[in-house]
Structure prediction request, 872 residues.
Amino acid sequence: MLTIMKKFTVIMLLAFFSIILVACNDNTDITDTEDNTGEIGERDTPVLTNPDEIFYSTDDYDVTYNDLFDSIKINDGLNRLLEMVDQDLLSDFYPEITTEEINLKIDKLTYNTDDPEEIAEISEEDRLEMEMNFLETMYLMGYPEERIEDYVKLVLAREHYVIDLMTSPETVDEVWNIKPESIAKNYYATYNNDIQSLKIKFNSEVEANNFLRENNLVSKNGKLLLYTGTTPIEEVPSFALDDTNTRELAETELFQYFIMMYNFVYGDYRTEIDINATAEELIAMEDLTINYDDIKAFNSSLADFIFNSLGDYETYSSGDIEKAYYTYQPEKFYSNKDTAYYMILNLTDREKPDVNDFEGTEAELVAIIGQEDYDEVKQKIIDFNLSNQSFISSRLTDLRRENGFFVYDYFMEIDYESVDIKYDSPELGSLNLIASYGNKDITVDEFFEYSMNMNAAMYLVHASQNKALIAAHYADVYCKDMDVCEYNLELNESVKMLEHLNAYDSMQAQFEASQYADFYTFEEYLYLAYGARSKTDMLEKFYVKQALQPLYIFDLIQTNDYAILEDLMPMIQPYYDKYFSLDATHLLIYVDRDENGSPDNYEEFYEGLEDTTEFDSKLAGLELAIRNYLVDEENSFTTLITEYKAATRTDETWGEFKRYGFFLMTENLSSSSSLSFTNTNNRFEDSFVERLISLYQEYKDPLNIDEEYLLDDELLETSYGMHLIRVEQGSAFDYPSAMYEMAYDEENQPKFTVGVENEGDQISLSQFRLYMMYRFSIITINTISTEVLYGFARPEMPISVIDALKEFGLKFNDALYVVGYLNMGVITELNQGELVNAYPSYFSGDALSLAASLARINEIYERQIFLELDIR
Prediction:
């Protein structure tokens, strides 16, 4: 059994060994851990009734039912098994599920939200991409569009069960049960009504103290006092401020000064408050309403101070509690997003009853807090628990354990132990059962049939991967100069296999010398990390596959005289059209009207303005002031930020813009490397990337080419605000030219491989073809000799051409060396094969339906391989 410690240390163990992992769900099945007797150690493990019968046949290999069974188990076998079990155990909850719930859950899974307004805000392009990704993901999981509801219903049935469990009287003793006492505690701890408060945010302590000093206000002895002396306050040391030259403020005066402070900070863009406004009038003002959750989201210390530590005027004036209701000096509340200082005067308290120690019935609690709040808090707890997949998983494992759930396959049991830390293995194994629960058994044949009819095509592809690789190139790598090719991996004595064996032995020795050997067996480690169930399995699924996969993929690349280039070359053209190399810094002008320490969404803010005239005028004035400031070559964005932050709100140049609520920040976007289309596309907002392209093209103009830098002549709008961009020529300002006229040696022989010559700047088809050979020879440098196996040596090309190919061709070439492209090749082979299905009860489909599924999987891989690279 795996212990709890084992489950929590698996990731650390993998990191400790610094091993490059290969996804288990792309491995096949050859293993010597179990044979068809089903014996592993002293316990029987299930085997199919007809394991060695052929399901599918190609000219080079056959795929048996046992191959597919292993493919299922190593990919998603446990999920399939739990689907079967949970669909039965949760059958009573299916009738509760409504069409509306299904549609909302599909929205949530597709867009990561089920809020129609949020979905509507997603751009059409992004929405279509999300929908495509969802459908493709579901298809690869075995749920084509017509079966997606089946998946969603299971998800919802699991949630319904957990909700029922959380609210059931039978689980009242569980800490996660939602009973009146837990709702009361949650309500008291987290549920906060809005309050009215004069919350005034100063960007710096100096700015706040300047206001106090200019208005003869003194912070002393926990109170805000008025200086009454005749000597200017700035000339009086703090120790000299005493009862002889200060006095307490009357209540009316205190309010007036806080109103003055408020108008000073916000008066240019909020409605000014009448200096003589009464407390009742202030309490009625919408602009003074603040919400606990809104503030806590960016500064929990500030929220706790305002809502919990600081008193309020209403309570203070009633005489119930003499608790300070205002801050007498600028206060800072530390937060990553908030470095401001605050002056605060609370007007009202939260109207929230103290139910922290409540012990009573639901009806009694509802009578105290109201039905609406009761239901809202209850739903928040439910939603929070449902957002935690481990919580749902724990409740379901409890359910299965209560029903006596056992897994009889040794390796699937290891997987399940990672799901249920309390799982106990059955004492006896089974040859024909894969699982049991309650009074029901699931035979291995039933499980296999269910899985095959869910996703046979995908299992077939995975089961064929290593077979295809071995059939294509095993002999070339592992049997070179051998009279008889040895296919037993542990007996093969080729140089490459001995290299694998040494690496395996080294890994095992390192493992056994580590602390992790106290918690895992080495066999468990191999399975958890690689899906390998034996030494032979590991050699094949990791080492041999890693060596042979590039060869197989290069075969695909070469197909029909490098026909793939016909698809790739048009994809490259936009990278030329959009090419740029710039070192860029930018100045961001932004607003933070919700005072959460981050730029407001600029588009939403601007659209929310009733009249944009004043804002546009202020922005234009700030832009002009910035450009005038930057005329002096000694000034920069950095010095501007420093000066702007230090400026007072009465500063002749910057004061009006600070009062209006404009903030500035700057960022060097090229601190690590020059910006290019490749490293900014899909990383920066599209409008920002397009502006960089325009600036680059402007820079290339002969009139600008010798300039030290270019400053954008207009501001650029993004969701963050308005940007002023400054660019310099990047490290590869002129894109690498592929132009080359062949040079010859003294014997009139070409100095480089024929085909590298090119009359144009952009890479040619023949150059890209040579580059594919060049890259392949590097990738396989320790595996094969390209000259022996493929008849060519590494192409020789001038550095200038290699640079051009690296810039525009590398990402496209290397994008092919992935499992998805391998699978596309395997599918091509399978299309030439034959569905045998010697035991038809295992699979109810036919050759046409299987071929259609393979074609759809191929389409998905083809799209996903170049999803981000193909920008046409």
Residues 444-478 form the longest helix (35 residues).
